[in-house]
Write a structure and sequence with these properties.
Residues 26-48 have a biased composition (Acidic residues). This protein is α+β, with helices and mostly antiparallel strands. It has a domain at 302-425 and 445-502. It is built from 14 helices and 32 strands. α2 crosses α5. The longest helix has 32 residues, at 54-85.
């Protein structure tokens, strides 16, 4: 029944189908007026916002052409099917937009034929999606020119250049016979700056002891300080060190005087040892454990530092401290601090004579019985020398800084050194004499001076004292006599055989022996030598001819008389005193062969052991004989006999040395007496022999002219 109802004539059916199709389409449009109106309004709004792009229009036209082509194909194939099926129902293929109308009017067509259906809901969704995509595309096209990436920072993650043949060879074979070592390149030494709070300071001053009511002062607060702060004062460190050294010495002397004043034992000893020729006296504290059983052989007062005294102590009679057995000792005293020696010097050989440097008493020189010449530098650090704890005191025993024992050649002495004398002034034009072929000139930090050493064979050696700029703590490989860390040494300058250069043939036949030597202070090129035949030789350091060559006594002929003491006049005139073993005293001048004055019986035949001019009075000198008698001569008062004689009752006096300050007018004059027991007494003579007299030098000059 369905077939019958749906089969038409091929001609009439197609026309009717077309007519019905148009009618149904119109009805469909009426049913969807509201929807079309709504969609039309939306399309009007979209067209007002933007125009449809060209690509969208071309897509729609393609769809329309495809639909039209499909409808034409269906309409063309539909009459043929009707004929073949003999009145079979006709299937209508409709567009999607007319799907509902066709289904209502021709329900049999849907069941009998297959067609293409249009879903308007999905089409609307696709239309909305395309519109949103077009908006996003337009916005991205507008924003893309505005967005630009910044390539300001760029770096290479890996830069590996190609390896050439040489590098490949070194990489494979260049590490043979090598080892890896580590070094510190100081990369961890980094400085960092920090900021801290500034410390507020105030500058105050004070004075002690106060000389007035105001003893201190300064700003009350920081506002009173200068804007830039207090200026840093310029400090002279060398001057400050000298001041502190002097101040400490003064304080030590004052403390020691207070200690002596509180001990009655010292006062009693001073009263007992005082002599009739002196106003006061005191003793140096030689009661030290290392000085027991040692005899004093020599005393030396520094001509520059008047308070410095050197005392030579011989070998001990009994074994004591292990370190000091078979060693001689030289004590450096400060007479203002008599409680203990300032420095203690030791050496392996017995010391016969000693002296100090001419400019400042920082160097000590000594001659020994085995012919060596020793030097001590008192400025050295005490840690360089051995220490011994004796009782509660830590004593430092200084070993020699330099010894000529390390000089392995013929210039060293081979017999006991009897005299050591400093050459006090500059070396004039011959400053480099004997050093032209040496390289020591670059090592000297200051102008050098010379030391003269004479042995009992009449060999006079001149040594240049050289101070090195650099100190070698490991010791020198060339200077074998220099201690490790020492910087003072002796360089041999010249040698002179005094027996051949000073004495004529008739005197040389007696084989004179040289005993003592002194250099003229006003002209250090000239020196005089005492012998054991009563003659005094005259020579120069460069072996020049001088007159007179010999200074003789008033008696003619040669006698076995030893010259035990010689002392130059300290007030400028070329005069000197000679003390002999027969007790005679001679006063010579450098221009005359025979003495100006001679005293033969002043000591009753006792040998003279020491003789010295007074440092404060030109006409006064002191004499010590072997019987421990002290004679005071005042030529202005009596030019024939001594004006005073003092006998030391207690024990024998070995030697003496005078001390005083001629630069001052206080008339302080003292005598240092070394006793056989090892004691050292300091006697301050009375003012009448110490204070200088008016026009004393002129009166002495007239007296010498008359004689």
């Amino acid at each position: 029944e369905t077939k019958d109802a749906c089969i038409y004539n091929s001609d009439t059916g197609l026309d009717n189908f077309s007519a019905n199709y148009e009618d149904d389409f119109e009805d469909y449009e009426d049913d969807f007026d509201d929807d079309e109106n709504e969609s039309g309004e939306e399309r009007d709004e979209e067209e007002n916002l933007r125009e449809i792009p060209f690509s969208r229009t071309s897509d729609i036209e393609e769809i329309q052409r495809a639909i039209t082509a499909e409808n034409d194909r269906i309409c063309t194939s539909l009459p043929k099917k009707i004929e073949n099926e003999k009145k079979a129902p006709v299937m209508v293929i409709t567009l999607t937009m007319f799907y509902n109308i066709t289904e209502k009017q021709y329900p049999s067509v849907r069941n009998s034929f297959c067609g293409i259906f249009m879903d308007f809901q999905m089409a609307n969704q696709r239309q909305s999606s395309r519109s949103m995509a077009s908006k996003q595309k337009k916005r991205s096209s507008e924003l893309l020119p505005l967005i630009d990436l910044d390539f300001s920072v760029s770096f290479s993650l890996l830069d590996l250049p190609p390896v050439n043949e040489y590098d490949m060879y070194i990489r494979n074979f260049g590490k043979m016979n090598t080892k890896q070592a580590y070094v510190q390149c100081n990369e961890d030494n980094i400085e960092r700056d920090i900021q801290t709070e500034e410390v507020e300071t105030l500058e105050k001053w004070t004075q002690h002891p106060g000389e007035s009511a105001v003893v201190s002062g300064g700003p009350l607060n920081s506002q009173d300080m200068p804007v830039n702060g207090a200026l840093t004062p310029k400090i002279d460190s060398q001057r400050l060190a000298n001041f502190l050294r002097s101040a400490c010495q003064v304080i030590a002397v004052l403390l020691e005087e207070d200690q002596v004043a509180t001990q009655p034992r010292w006062k009693l000893r001073s009263r007992q040892t005082s002599l009739s020729i002196s106003d006061s006296c005191f003793q140096l504290n030689t009661n030290q454990p290392f000085l027991h059983d040692r005899k004093i052989s020599c005393l030396y007062m520094s001509p520059v530092q008047r308070q410095t005294l050197l005392s030579v102590h011989g070998l001990p009679e009994k074994a004591g401290i292990v370190l000091l057995n078979r060693k001689s000792i030289i004590c450096v005293w400060n007479i203002w601090q008599p409680s203990s020696p300032q420095k203690v010097l030791i050496c392996n050989s017995e010391v016969i004579c000693c002296c100090s440097s001419p400019s400042k008493a920082t160097l000590v020189f000594a001659g020994t019985i085995d012919g060596s010449l020793l030097v001590w530098d008192l400025r050295e650090d005490s840690r360089m020398h051995p220490h011994v704890m004796i009782g509660e005191t830590d004593w430092t025993f200084r070993v020699p800084t330099f010894s000529t024992d390390g000089i392995l050649n013929s210039v060293n002495h081979t017999s006991p050194v009897l005299a050591v004398e400093p050459v006090s002034t500059s070396l004039y034009a011959d400053q480099n004499y004997g050093l032209s072929s040496l390289s020591y000139q670059g090592e000297m930090s200051g102008p050098p001076f010379q030391i003269a050493s004479m042995d009992e064979n009449g060999i006079l050696n001149m040594w240049v004292v050289v101070e090195l700029q650099k100190v070698d703590l490991a010791g020198s490989q060339t200077d074998l006599g220099l201690i490790p860390g020492g910087k003072v040494k002796l360089v041999h300058s010249s040698t002179m055989e005094l027996n051949n250069s000073l004495f004529p043939k008739d005197v040389r036949q007696r084989v004179p022996q040289t005993l003592t030597i002194k250099f003229l202070s006003s002209d250090p090129n000239h020196f005089i030598v005492g012998t054991n035949i009563g003659l005094v030789g005259h020579g120069t350091r460069h072996d020049l001819k001088v007159l007179p060559k010999l200074f003789r006594p008033q008696e003619s002929g040669l006698r076995s008389i030893s010259i035990n003491a010689i002392d130059f006049f300290p007030f400028g005139k070329p005069l000197f005193l000679v003390g002999c073993s027969d007790g005679s005293i001679r006063l010579h001048q450098m221009t005359s062969e025979y003495p100006l004055m001679q005293w033969n019986n002043s000591t009753n035949g006792q040998p003279i052991t020491a003789l010295q001019w007074a440092l404060t009075r030109p006409a006064v000198f002191f004499v010590l004989d072997a019987s421990s008698n002290i004679y005071i001569w005042d030529l202005l008062e009596n030019d024939l006999l001594p004006v005073a004689k003092q006998t030391i009752p207690s024990e024998n006096v070995v030697t003496m040395a005078l001390l005083g300050e001629p630069e001052k007018t206080n008339g302080l004059l003292g005598i240092a007496l070394a006793k056989e027991s090892g004691q050292i007494d300091i006697q301050y003579v009375k003012k009448k022999w110490a204070l200088p007299q008016p026009e004393e030098s002129e009166k002495l000059h007239l007296l010498l002219l008359q004689s």
